[in-house]
TrEMBL record, chains A, B:
One of its GO terms (molecular function) is kinase activity. GO terms for biological process: polyphosphate metabolic process. Keywords: Kinase, Transferase. This is Polyphosphate kinase. Residues 11-233, 269-491 form the Polyphosphate kinase-2-related domain.
């Protein structure tokens, strides 16, 4: 994989200087078209061997292009805020917006390679990380991002020579960090695992470019040309209008025997039972969130449901159990301008709770496979791939200790009608009912299909859906709280078990 | 100040229960109007004596109102990201958007009181903090924010009784932290400094409300009523259209002998001199940013100037001196939707560099007193008060070690014409020239007045303006770099001197 980057590519200075002016102009032009179009972000990943010219190349790109449209991001030591969130959070928060270019210096690849080379974990964990990177990049590209992955390479001999050269040069010796020398010790491992990573993550939508780092003219010109070609292709691509399907084709089987239809909508609680059970579950919930084991977890509760199913009321009963400092509630409505300039999942990543905290999403990332699907706000391809992206997302955050609990609050069509009418009559509830609600009601069947698909495709062991029979609000509220409690207790127990296992192994 | 909150206010349970339903409805209604209008944010500050019912009240407010529109923020231990920024940064990043309510539990007041009570500093520093709080709140209110400040009070006797009561109650004993007991030791100091703070920060636009905390019915009802009344007043206030003045009245004296007119626009550098000096200054700059004293500072460079004055080119020469990982460049254009939903300065606070870092603002917070003033995008009152707000902002960040260097790149009208024409002819520079540029040119005199006012009002010892004669790009670029270097050296020297002073005092 690296052979052709060790054969000593050279471009002489004259050729270089003759070609650079045109290249620069073309790059600048491309960069401004990128900004003007504002259609997609560009992400440049910089990896490879120390001393192979990574820093120099990034510096040069900033000189050739307009640095005001480039964000160079480094990911060294994690900050404590980053440590309190799932690993990918730090990358999500740094994603460039559409029309801009982000250069990620030190990224998910450097993190996994460092970890493997220094023996923090073995191949299976490396493969997991590789897989996660692939899925992240696939998703970003599906959302329109243009990703360049550069691996700057040197043979072992070349690297040693270069490090020595830098060290002897008083102007540059400050650049050699202890880490660099360390890498010269671990070169073989680094290259071995690097090869594994490159092999498995070079994909048509985001291929690796291995750049021989010895000769600066060759290196710079090659990177510049690759960038330009990739940018031009993406910029000249005709603007495809996403295929809009107002109501998506229903699944073939629609015999009304869906999960939703099989719910027992008569379930209810008497007032006395309700009050007793509610208080019990609220106290249990408050206790669990104060449990010191909570410090290693975070809790995410997702509320989806039919209009007027009682999401707000259920959320308030959950919140009432807690000190308001313990939770935050994120209502999801139409995305803001900044949110639209980022990949779909960005707006949810930014609201993820830190360890020990609890976030309620009042509607959520499932909007894409519900309202956006049914109303045709996104293309069929978009919502179809969303299922996989959502599962990936939930797996990633679950792996980091986040407990994800998802509720679909279901009511039947008659109950909805009654509630709509009631809302229109009570002054301080009028804000709760809009034209949209009546319109959505006409699409009852389309929504039902979307819900069933959603549950089928995203109810996983890691984060199952809980369907809540919500014709009776009391029943629904108690069920919600009880489910949250069960999920937290299960998570604590699993963690305890693992801790015991680890202990006994020692 | 606290006397009337120690006399034992009580509201009996029947009165309370009779009044609550209507109050809740009215609060809910107000809250949704707040959201619908989306005109202003609401900030509720919670302070006072431990055990006086702060937590309980916030919890109750979340139950009475819709918690999905409320953000409860706590400010305990600073995170390392917060520690790396000026003190107010943590509050700015948590400001609620227009239409929402933020409850700040632990805020600038708790921070200054804790510091003073525990002897971390003396009265002069407390007064500085008081003053900073006042200015912050004034600015927020001027931008439309509605601020409620609640001080929950207990007499010493009441507090001790309440802490003891909580301790003996097994359901609540977990709530008593060591800090609470500590406060019972420091009650007298806390009240003494609390009084000083309240006295000096109770203003017509954001008065304090002292609430006696003993009786929960009294406490809750009082807070609820105050909130409702304040909300209603603000919501019912007629939407005043800001007075739009397309071109602001020029200052009385306009005899063409302005600072701008007195610049020597013939200053220039020969190519050889330029190349030598540029390299020298770039090396000096790189060295200064690597200096270990830089770790206690951050650098902010603001670039403003006539259109086509060469801001971009100057910024690139600055950037070229550095490793791209050391700086970021923030181009300021029209604000995004989220930015418009926050106070004017919010978008700049969010981009401030952390300690050790360097941020270039390509256009800046001075937009308000330049383009927004001249084009009439904001009212006369807005840009007039902006001078003071900007000085406050720069003082705050300078106090935290941020070195602020501001450049106005000036060219004369003929030079601008030449450059505009040249830009229209060079293909890859066409993007740089728009209709707007030609339009702005017609307002040359209005802009000049705005610039002179700006310099007069915001060139301070803490962060002076540097006027750069930019008819000759070479001269301008070297002057920019030299000024940055001088500013950093001065800052390092001042810090060294202070360190020596501190040492010799010991």
């Amino acid at each position: 994989m690296f052979e052709s980057a060790e054969i000593g590519h050279v471009i002489d200075k004259d050729t270089f200087e003759a070609e650079v002016p045109a290249l620069r102009e073309a790059l600048l032009e491309a960069q401004f078209e990128l900004q003007q179009q504002g259609r997609f972000p560009v992400i440049v990943l910089i990896n490879g061997i120390e001393g192979a010219g990574k820093g120099e190349t990034v510096k040069l790109l900033n000189e050739w292009m307009d640095p005001r449209l480039i964000e160079v991001r480094t990911f060294d030591q994690q900050t404590d805020e980053e440590l309190a969130h799932p690993p990918a959070w730090r990358y999500w928060r740094m994603l460039p917006a559409k029309g801009r270019m982000g250069i990620f210096f030190g990224n998910w690849y450097s993190q996994m390679l460092q970890g493997r080379v220094h023996g923090e974990f073995k191949d299976p964990r490396l493969d997991q990380a590789i897989n996660a990177a692939e899925r992240l990049e696939k998703m970003l590209c599906d959302e329109g991002a243009l990703i360049f992955k550069f691996w700057f390479h040197l043979s072992k001999k070349q690297m040693k020579a270069r490090l020595k050269g830098l060290k002897d040069d008083p102007l540059h010796s400050w650049r050699i960090s202890p880490l660099d020398w360390q890498q010269s010790q671990t070169y073989d491992k680094f290259v071995k695992y690097g090869e594994r990573v490159l092999r498995r993550t070079s994909r048509d939508y985001a291929p690796w470019h291995v750049i021989e780092g010895v000769d600066s003219c060759y290196r710079s010109l090659t990177v510049g040309r690759i960038l330009l070609e990739g940018l031009r292709q993406a910029l000249d691509r005709p603007k495809v209008k996403p295929e809009k399907v107002a109501v998506a084709p229903l699944p073939a089987l629609d015999d009304q025997v869906t999960l939703i239809d099989s719910l027992d909508m008569t379930l209810r609680l008497e007032k006395d039972d309700y009050e007793e059970q509610l208080i019990t579950e609220q106290a249990r919930f408050a206790g669990l969130l104060r449990d010191k084991r909570m410090r290693r977890h975070a809790l995410v509760a997702v509320f989806e449901g039919n209009d007027a199913a009682g999401k707000g009321g259920a959320i308030r009963r959950v919140a009432a159990a807690l000190d308001p400092r313990q939770y935050s509630i994120v209502p999801i409505a139409a995305p803001t301008e900044e949110e639209r300039a980022h990949p779909y999942m960005w707006r949810f990543w930014r609201h993820l709770p830190a360890r020990g905290k609890f976030t309620v999403f009042d509607r959520s990332w499932y909007g894409r496979v519900l309202v956006e699907r049914v109303e045709g706000f996104c293309s069929r391809a978009d919502w179809l791939r969303a299922y996989g992206e959502i599962n990936d997302f939930e797996e990633q955050i679950a792996d980091a200790g986040v407990v994800v609990v998802k509720f679909w609050l279901a009511i039947d069509k008659e109950t909805q009608l009654e509630r709509f009418q009631a809302r229109e009559e009570i002054p301080f509830k009028r804000f709760k009912i809009t034209e949209d609600d009546w319109r959505n009601r006409d699409k009852w069947d389309a929504y039902r299909s979307a819900v069933c698909d959603m549950v089928d495709r995203t109810s996983t062991e890691i984060s199952p859906w809980t369907l809540v029979e919500a014709n009776d609000k009391r029943w629904a509220r108690v069920k919600v709280l009880r489910t949250l409690n069960q999920a937290l207790e299960d998570a604590f127990e699993r963690a305890d078990k693992q801790a015991r296992k680890r202990k006994s192994r020692k």
